[in-house]
Amino acid sequence: MNGFSERNLMPSSVSLVNGKNASKPACLEVLARRLCKSISVWYSSRCYEERYQRMIPLRPRLLVFELALAMLMLAVKANSAGPVLIAYGGFNETMAPMWVGVEKGFFKKYGVDAHVLQTRSGQIMMATLATGGASLVWAAPSSALNSTASGMKLGCFAAGNNRLSRELIVRKGIESIEDLRGKSFGVQSIGGGAWLSTMVALDALGIDVDKNKLSVRVIGDTGTQTQALLTGNIDAAVLPYSYAEIAKRGGAKSLADVGALKVVYQATVMCSPKDSTSVTLETQVALAKGLIESLIYILEPANRRDVAGILKKNLRLAKDEEGDASARTAQLQMPNVEIGLNVDSWKTVRRIVTRINAKVQDVELDQVIVPTVLQNLESSGFMAEMRKRVPR
Questions:
Q1: β-bridge mates for residue 154, sequence order
Q2: Does position 244 have pLDDT exceeding 70, yes or no?
Q3: pLDDT tens for residues 130-185?
Q4: Same domain assignment for residues 270 and 380
Q5: Among the residues of 54-172, which ranges form H helices?
Q6: Where among 24, 49, 79 does a domain terminate?
Q7: CA-to-CA distance for 246 and 67, rounded, in angstroms?
Q8: Alpha-carbon distance 195 to 193, whole Å?
Q9: In terms of DSSP bridges, do strands 215-218 and 16-17 run parallel, antiparallel, or are they unpaired?
Q10: Which domain holds residue 363?
Q11: Domain stops at, among 261, 296, 328
């Protein structure tokens, strides 16, 4: 059978993808390539035969086959868009618009079959992107700038949050900002999203890391940081409101509500390699539209219970009230649909990241920030329509 099924002529070699039946586009592409090869071989033999025998002019038949091949490849191109994998490192409410967008079908609504892949840190996430393990990343700007400084040609085009909805939480025994001198803070990785949120918060509070001899320890994701704080393995952490509530119920104390400072901050952005052949401008625009629909869904009060359920499941929270707190945090971290990248925010990030990677200072932000996606959404009238749908 040469690898073909008798029933549908689809190659059996592509019948399974990650243990599931392959999509029709994947099968179509393989079938089309085989058909093209067969046509090419047949056409070459006919050309040689006709030229040799000088039977009829070749050009009309050449045009016919060129047209047939062109139409076939266009059909393949139009139907070969498989799943788009988006890697992420942060395990907290910054993922809310992605989880909601995938589960409620907002990305599929605009033609993108988006899936998300969790990695253990920002470094692993960017390595996954660099090696082709994912098409895009949902990354902290610090990860994007570090990767760009290392030579990766990266383009970031949409942000999923623009508020730092977190609190500075400390263990029992620490009563004031002054008591933080010489103490330890927990993060997920150096240079990643939790680290960046911590550094931006301390910067906004006027707390100098070096002068106060603060140490930063790699502990794990947000839940692990919370547990480490309660057990005394770290002294402090800058936690999302939801996890801050868990910590306070366990006896920890809040020294500052960072969200009340109105810090202009974008914790996570969507990025892809600039030389990507699978993520086109059309793909980016479609993903941005799905992201905006997801943000509106999160902000709609009638959807609170559903959003809480999605977050409780994905964050593996134990109680319904913890899911409710996560839903509130997701609303507060992005109270609008302004997904455009904020240059002033990125300048702050660049200044902070330069402390651990001097090469970042030389990164021109226009190398990383891609404005064309937002420009497309604005000029088409999509943004104007979506702003009208934001709950007041």
A1: 273
A2: yes
A3: 999 999 999 999 999 999 999 999 999 999 999 999 999 999 999 999 999 999 99
A4: yes
A5: 59-79, 96-103, 106-109, 122-130, 141-149
A6: 79
A7: 64
A8: 5
A9: unpaired
A10: 84-162+265-389
A11: 261
